[in-house]
Amino acid sequence: MKQIIALGGGGFFMEPHNPLLDTYILQQSNKANPKICFVPTASGDSENYMARFYSFFDSQSCVPSHLSLFSPPTRDLESFIMEKDIIYVGGGNTKLSSGIAADDGVAVHYIDQEIHKIVSSKPNGKAYKVSLDKEINEEELAVKYLGTID
Predict the structure, then answer these.
(1) Is the residue at 69 inside a domain?
(2) pLDDT given for residue 97 in this prediction
(3) Segment (H or E) for 18
(4) What angle is formed at CA 43 by the lines to CA 37 and CA 45, rounded to 5 degrees?
(5) Domain total of the chain
(6) What is the span of the domain harbouring residue 71?
(7) DSSP character for 53?
(8) Within a domain: residue 57?
(9) Does residue 150 form part of some domain?
(10) How confident is the model over 26-36, as a mean pLDDT?
(11) Are 5 and 109 in contact (CB under 8 A)?
């Protein structure tokens, strides 16, 4: 099973006192102590960004690491990545990727190229399916707030 969880913003960097999205991501590995690797390339390997990553994930049940593409730890990047359970790519813009727009604090969780669920660290987070048919159409999608118990 291959998974992608695309955040529209939020997580340890934007919401350091709200761990809901990052906790959700860790839980999806189904491992007690997953290996999570941060790729901060979009920020130019910002020291501040990496420090915040380690500040949060060092206190979680996981093994955090990072991959600098400016100064890679190995020439065999494929092996380095494949030994990780979670790849957390920083920066970039997930809005409108695959026709989905998401508020900050909202994550779209894909399993095998299909949307599995959409979750939010904020009670009123929203996501939309966006299409163009002579005009822009937005269809609001169901979003589960992670602060509630099933």
Answers:
(1) yes
(2) 47
(3) none
(4) 55
(5) 1
(6) 3-145
(7) H
(8) yes
(9) no
(10) 94
(11) yes
Q: How far apart are CA 76 and CA 80, in angstroms?
A: 6
Alpha helices in the chain (DSSP H): 11-14, 20-27, 47-57, 77-82
Q: Hey, what are 113's tokens?
A: 């190229």
In this predicted model, what pLDDT tens digit does every residue of 82-141 receive, in sequence order?
999 998 887 654 444 467 888 888 988 988 878 999 999 999 999 988 887 788 888 999
Joined together, the tokens standing for residue 72 give 């890679």
57 touches 36 (CB < 8 A) = yes
Token representation of residue 57: 């994930």
Is pLDDT at 29 greater than 50 in this prediction? yes
Does the pTM of the predicted model rise above 0.85? Answer: no
Burial class (CB in 10 A: 0-12, 13-18, 19+), 40: buried
Residue 125 lies in a domain: yes
Establish how many alpha carbons lie within 13 A of residue 26's alpha carbon, considering only the half-sphere containing its beta carbon: 21
Backbone φ and ψ for 37, nearest 5 degrees, come out as -120, 125
pLDDT confidence band for 145 (50 / 70 / 90): very high
- Distance between alpha carbon 29 and the CA centroid of its chain, in Å? 13
Determine the length of the chain: 150
